[in-house]
Every structure is written in structure tokens, then in C-alpha cells.
Amino acid sequence: MRGAPGARAQASFARRHHLFWWFRHAALVAWSMFIMFPIYWMLATSFKDAGEWVTWPPHWYPYQPTLYNYHQIFAFATMEKELSRQATEQVFSIWGAMGDSMLICTVSSLISLLMGTFLAYSVSRFGVGGKNFRYLILTIRMVPPIVIAIPILMYYAIMIPYTTDALFGTRISLFDSYTGLGLLYTATTLPFVIWMMLSFIDEIPYTLEHAARMMGAGRVYTIRRVVVPLVASGMVVTFLFIFILNWSEFLLALTLTHPNVTTLPVLLNKFQSAVEGRLYGPQAAIGTVITIPVVVLGVVIQKHLIKGFSFGMIRK
Amino acid sequence: MAEAGARPSGGAAGGARIRAGRGGGLAAWLAQERVFRLIPFVVVEAFFLLLLAVPFLLTLYISLLKWRANRPFEQAFFQGFDNYFDVLSDVEFWWALARTFYFAGVAVLLELLIGFLLAMLCAQEFKGRRLYITIFLVPMMVVPVVVGYNFSMIYIDSGPLNEVLAPVVQLFGGDPRIRWLSHPIAAQWAIIWADVWQWTSLTFLIFLSGFSALPPQLIRAARILGAGRWQIFWRVQLPLLKPVIVIAIVIRSMEALKIFDQSVLLTFGGPGNSTQTVAFYLWRQVWQFNKFGFGAAASIILLVMFSALIYYGIYLLVRERATLQREGG
């Protein structure tokens, strides 16, 4: 095992190194192909015509590339008979779900970002909540979502309507509403915001705020003019990260919304159980459409992903 | 902290002077140190209390009722702990739980091994390293539902997997159009591989940053003292990486135990119940069979079970993070 000194050892080291070079690239290329293939297959399917979705032997690339699937999901209204005859009479438009997803994810991520940033500031500067607060907040994230979904369902569908009925005389149900799902998304992403913003705020020297305060700036003014500009890029990264999380969330959206509000992952699932059999092509097109923006965002904030996913446990 | 507590009077006075024109009594009161520091805390805690704690109390109450959602809530009546006995004596509940742990265990083990190997291969600088890293991190950002869909496309009977395997299968005279997702064990592995496909990227990323944070002086010192590659790996690098490994295990296990999306998209729990995880099982009980009391009891039981696990997981995280910071500083 021990590397002996001398020229012969040097030569054997070089040979071994060369072998190692091949081994390394072989392993990395193999894994890259494993990673890229499902994505490629989705892209290819999304450009395939209805007849090519499932054929034996399968077509490795679309023989007759078509934008029909994209036409179908981006249709504003019922399509021309000619076009829609190719697959099914039923036309699934993505616009409603896209709007719902965008609205819920953006608003709840923004609220979560605001609340989480202020709390992180408070925890970092004043030690609010005790020494272990930053760890306690993780429990919310670690509880399986189904355990949260069942109580929330009963809360939204029973308790809140009954309470509002008694208090104001009208039944307000948060079940299947933008507010209901948005509130829950805010709650589930708060731990991530607090962790990521803590790691950003902890890096700012306290002396800056101290100086501002000594010169007579108010508290809010200090935060707005001294702290926020310094953590602005961190806030953007955090926002993008939790936006991705909310964008991909499936269980809560599936369980707490049914006919009215539909997010994109739920829409994709609906195609799965379509009556006329599965619509592979439009499904692939929807998959592509929801994946591409997220992957682009992800590549932009790649360096910071680890802070989010590992709760700031690992520094990079 | 001590510094912050030492001069609230001066700061508050300064703040009050500048804002004397618009700030009223309320603003001055809010700007006091002891009030101001608590504002975000109170807001967030009130939010959690209203949105999470109250529903749990409600769930505790409903778990004691005999009630199905196909009847109005007023007709539900109190029946004590029957729901809890029902859940605990349901064999399928325990099977689903065991299956969840089985999936999570196998998937996390594979993710750790593959992620560690890939990170080791990418630890040093070489040509093309950045490209590989970018590719390896892509799955993490793909929507889980889309992953489920993608894998279902690959596993269908006239999909690419069967096409690749066709020469081998035909050699033995079999029909190459295997229905993978109709076989219990193959379906279970389909779910595990979908999870590995997506989350090896995370373990890879964690280990990669672990490798890059290793102090190079120690490794150089070991090499000068005559240690071989294997010795350096086992005696120097691995012990230094231990906290990172523990953190990766805890974070991944906690996430893997939530497994749900792939069960729905790939197999819908089937064939039979062979890919029914505990989340999927509960979803079925509540949203398909409307057994609300049963679901409430089950979610309380699960919460109790998981809270022990979560407590231990967080304890480990805190401990290893402290180790990391000691090493870093």
C-alpha cells in the first residue's frame, strides 16, 4: 500500500493514473447518461405524434417531430376538430393550472420570505426564542406532509366554516382555495427561509448596524438601509429556492384542493387517470414545461442549493 | 447579545428624535429593544399556532369520534379510543409502515454509496469537472411528479428499458415486452430507483462540499509522513468527513420517509398493495374511503412515532454541526 520512492514507483504511478483517468470518466459518463436519459425521453416524447407514443420497438427519437402536444396544452379554448381528433376530443389547457401555480407559489414564497427574514434577523441579532430555536423550527419540516394534511383538511373543511358560521353568519371554507394552500406553503417553507437567511445574516458584521444606530437611525430604517441591501442577493436566492419547493409540491396540493384550484403537478397527475387512457404526449409536454423554468432557476442558484437542502448544516 | 442589551436607551432615544415628527406613542413603544426583538417571533409563532397547533387539537378530538365524511359532522358521536385500536390492529398499516422504512433504507443506502463515489471522483480539479457537476445536480430541481412520470414512461411494456433488454430476453426465448410495474418486486425497485435518480444529486452535493472543506495541510502532512492513498482515505479523510456523512444520512432519511409522489405516479400503490407507502395508505383511507376518524387517529399515531425519530435526528444534526464548526474554526 505504501508508495515506495524511486523512479519505478513514479512510472507505475503514472500508469495507474492513466488507468484511473479512464475509470473516472467512464463512471462519470455512465452516471450522466443515467441522469440525462429520462429527461431526454420526456423531451423526445413531447415532440412525438400520437402514433409514436407507445410503439414496439420504441422510437428513440421522434420520426415525425410535431408541436401538436404543445399546441394542445397551450390551447386557449377548445381546439379545432381537425387537430384534436388526433388524440382525443378532450382538450387539456395548461393555462388555468399555470396561473394557479404561479399565483400561489409567488405570493406564499414572498410572505414566507418576509416573515422568515425578519425572524432570522431577530434570532441572529437578539437570540430570540432561545439557543435551540433554530433547531426546533426544523421539526416542522421533518414531519411527513401527510400527517399535516389530514388535520389541515379537517381544520379547513370543518372547523373554519363552523366557526365563521357562528361568528359572522357565513360559511367560509379554506378547503380548495388559494388562501388555504398558500398559507400552508408559507408554513412549510418558513424553516428553509429561516435557515438560509440565518446563514446570510450571521455573516454581516453587527458593527455596521451599530454605527447606523449611533448616528440616530431608527430600527426599521437601519434594517431597510443597512441590513436589507447587504442580504438582498441572499433573499433572492432564498426566494428562488422556496419557489422551486412550492412549485414542485404535490401531496398538499393533491389533498387540499379538488375541483377549483389546480396546481401544475396535480394537473399532470390528472392526465395519468384520464378516461381515454393515458395521454403520454401532452403529459410529456406538461412535464417539459414545468421542468424547464425550474431547472434554469436551479442552475442559477446552484451554489446556494446546498444551504437550503442541508438546512445550512454544510457550508460551501 | 450582551452588547445589544447594553445600549438600548441611547439607541431608542436617537431613534425617537429622528422620527419625532411622524412616530406616535405606538411607534416608539414598538421600537424599544424588548418589544422590537419579539415582533417577528410573535408573528411567526402566532401563525404556526393558528395554522398547525389548532388543527392538531382538532384532530385529537376527531380521532375520538366515530365518523365518516359521507355523513354530516353533527351525526358523529364519541366512541373513545376505538379508532386507535382499529389503526393499530390493521395489518396493512404496519405493512405500509414497514414498506416505507424498507424503501427509505434501501434508497438512502444507494444514494449515499453512489453519491460518495461520485463526489470522490469529482473532488479534484480535472478537465470537464464543472460540466459533470452541473449535470449531476439537475435531478434535484426536477419536479418529483415529473420524475414519477418519466420513470413510468421508461418502464412501460413497450418502453426503452425493454428495448435495451430485448436481445438478452429473446436469447432465452422470452417475450421482451415485460410489464415491469405489474410485478410486485420490480415495481418496488422502480420506486427505489426513481428516488435514487432524483436524490443522489443531493448526497453528491453534500459530500462534494465536504471534500472541498477538507484541510489540505492534513492530507499533505500525512503524505509526507509516508501514508499511501488508501491510508490517507481511511485514516484521515473518512474520519474528517464523518459529520458530513451523518448529516447526509439524517437529512435524506427524513425526506425519504415521506415518499408519496412516486407511489401515486408510478404504480398507484399496486400491484396489490406492494408499493403502498404509509403516506399513500393514509391518503387512500381518508380521501378515497372517507374514514376521517380513522385517519385522524392514524396521523396522531404516526406523529408520535415520528417525533421520536425527528428528535433523535435533530439531536444528531446539532451534534455533528458543532463538530463541523469546531473543525472549521
Largest contact between protein chains? A-B, 107 and 116 residues
CATH class of the largest domain in chain B: Mainly Alpha
Shape of chain B: flat
Report the CATH architecture of the largest domain in chain A.
Orthogonal Bundle
Strand order of the largest sheet of chain B: 1-2
Count of helix runs of chain A:
14
**Which regions of chain A contain 5 or more consecutive residues with pLDDT less than 50?**
79-89
* Outline of chain A: flat
Any low-confidence stretches of chain B, pLDDT <50, length ≥5?
Answer: 1-21
SSE arrangement of chain B, N to C: HHHHHEEHHHHHHHHHHH
Annotation keywords:
heterodimer; A: 316 residues; MetI-like fold; 3 domains; 70% helix; 0% strand; flat; B: 329 residues; mainly alpha; 2 domains; two-stranded antiparallel sheet; 2 strands; 1% strand
